[in-house]
Amino acid sequence: MTIAEAIAAADELRPNNISAATKTRWLHQHDCLIWEELVRDYETDTAKPSLEDYADDDQTVLLVPEEDAELEVNWLLTQIDYHHADYERYNNDAAMWAAGRDAYAKKLGRRIMYQTNTQVESRERPPAVQILY
User: What residue ranges do the domains of the chain occupy?
Assistant: First the structure.
């Protein structure tokens, strides 16, 4: 999902007067949070998101994969509702975001475990030891 797609999806659900630049900054903060908490330790080839990349092009692809893109939209919804002082909606959005973040963390962990187990299984194993009584 790109920055423009995430903003459009959030705006469709919550019409608002917050600038695209502010929403872009929120998306950058979210991707940095996800990178710090989840991605940094597992995906060493993924660099920390740079604000310059986000500010220059609204077609920048966000950090969270497409199948979990709802996480980015829910983050925007939490920010919009918080800044509009709609705390009931904010609490609902925050719960949805937290559930999505937990699901993404589990999926990332399973993928890393699978990759690690596959690497271990592909190594040559020592011969089995036969115990004689």
Answer: 3-122
The maximal CA–CA distance of the chain, rounded, in angstroms, is 80
Handedness of CA 39, 41, 46, 48 (dihedral sign): positive
- pTM (whole model) above 0.85: no
Token duo for residue 16: 């608002």
Q: Provide DSSP, 83-122.
A: HTT-HHHHHHHHHHHHHHHHHHHHHHHHHHHHHHHHHHHH
**∠13-16-11 over CA atoms, to 5°?**
35
pLDDT in tens, 12-57: 999 999 999 999 999 999 999 999 988 887 776 777 888 877 877 7
pLDDT of residue 47: 78
CA distance 19 to 7: 10
SS3 state of residue 52: helix
Q: Which candidate, 40, 72, 42, 39, places its Cα nearest to that of 54?
A: 72
Query: Do the beta carbons of residue 26 and residue 72 sit within 8 Å?
Result: no
% of the chain with per-residue pLDDT over 90: 56
